[in-house]
Amino acid sequence: MTEGLSAPASTSHQEFPCQSCGAKLQFEPGTTHLTCNYCGAVQDIGQQSSAPVRERSLEDALRELAQRPASELAQGGHEIQCNGCGAVTLITGQAASCPFCDSPMIVPIEEDRATIVPESLLPFHIEAKQAAQIFADWIKSRWFAPNDLAKRAKKAKIDGVYLPYYTYDTTTVSSYQGERGTHYYVTETYTDSEGNTQTRQVRKTRWNSVRGSVRVHFDDVLICASKSLPVKLTDTLEPWDLQSLRSFDPAFLSGFMAERATLGLEQGFGVAKDKMDPRIRSAIRSDIGGDEQRIHSKSTNYRDPTFKLFLLPLWLSSFRYKEKVFRFVINARTGEPAGERPYSAVKIALAVIAGILLVAAIVLILSATEG
To answer: pTM to 2 decimals?
Structure first.
């Protein structure tokens, strides 16, 4: 770490002053340095954040997981809580509204509560100006959106937010009982509608009981540790370039927000198990073989599970339309957008009417042609 850029992790309220003018530095997306918005000076974050990212034993972590006050995770960091959606967010400056629901009802958390410490992150790559343009283009491309949506969304702010994520690695060994179905064909005789005798081939299935076990290895099963955004939105942002994870450095949080993990480590592993289940079932079906398979029961052992806790960057805009909250997110590494939007009942009705008229016109043309 370049001297002067970061205080030791045990020091609260870390500062990143500009060495030229003393103003507060901010992380510059797409780079590995901090920038002064007043004099333009640049300070390198350093190479310490390139250290290898380690997998940690899940079993050991549940006993010994390190926690530190939120103020130690970022320069001058403090937490706010939204009275609307309940999100707890670490900020390094001021916030007028909640980034997740646009509610103005946010209150500072006076107590410096301990939080799980992320050990790595992906720094921002997409800049705020790029994100704003992606947002504007996305809004314009929504055909059935209300006419005034673009104008309203233009006034909405867009925030840079780090979301907490886990990945889990494990090898599963699943014992199962089921049945293997093998197809065979028999010839049946029947009488057709005209009274003639006919034959046909009919497929049957012969079932045999089977049992066995399968082994499946899982690497980096990704689980969002935030409950503030719908899963369908966060899933759309995948894939992430997790091979580029950097060791946590509070300098990367300068000028951005970071949400506290609201999904516990053990809860997250439960969600990961659900995500693993389809692959396990697929492996069992493959092991059973035959033409069809039935799985009556299975028991899975998760061996030596490990995990990582890290932060992933996104640009987030929450805006209100007719008292309902809509959210738009951008993967701040790739620029991939996803969002919610209102629909215009008038536009949909007009489209339906136009479709009906088009069909009616085609029918009339065909009728005239045949006549």
So the answer is: 0.73
